[in-house]
Amino acid sequence: MKINWLYFIIFGILVSCNNSSKTIQLNADSLATADVEEKLLIVPGKSIGRYFLGQDVQQVDSIKGKPDAGDAAMGKAWAIWYGKNTTNGKRNELAIYSSYKDSTMASKAVKQIRVISSKFETNDGLNNGNTLSNFQVKYPDFKQIAVYYDSVLGDTIKVYDSQSNGIAVEFLRDISRAITVHAKGEALNESYYTLKPGLTKLAN
User: Fold this and answer.
1) Which of 8, 19, 77, 152 has the most CB atoms less than 10 A away?
2) What is the model's pTM?
3) CA distances (Å), origin 97, targets 76, 114, 196
């Protein structure tokens, strides 16, 4: 009888250990999932993925490496990285606008972040490939601020901005094709478009 009780005790310990290991594995998986989601999250007025407004540019460089293209003048700069994949036939890219943090001119900080990939999205599921009406429902102050003619596409690109929320979106035939995050309450810096060949600004 004592031997039977001993078997029961050993069996119970083994089951308990097995359950504990499963619990640890589940927690690890959920953390990994959350980490992936955070890397693809757009937070208006704050961040896109691992990049955030106010972030030191040197930190961005350590993550992305040397930019594929860009332009710099008077302490301000655009840096552009191209991805291997495409979204709606357009090569994915990350563009970051930066300027000096303060009057000491010792370092630069991120001021705007622009992405083309449809993998990045807001908590509400808004991403590149969404309709203009979906953005207008979420952002009541979403207004058209500029229109550009793209000679490569042979079509117009309309730029809308929710200044209070810090998010601007480019639309081609009312379908979003690029999203930019900027500081809340500030106007979108359109200097990026001067870097793109074939773009001509039209009257709003």
Assistant:
1) 77
2) 0.79
3) 7, 9, 14
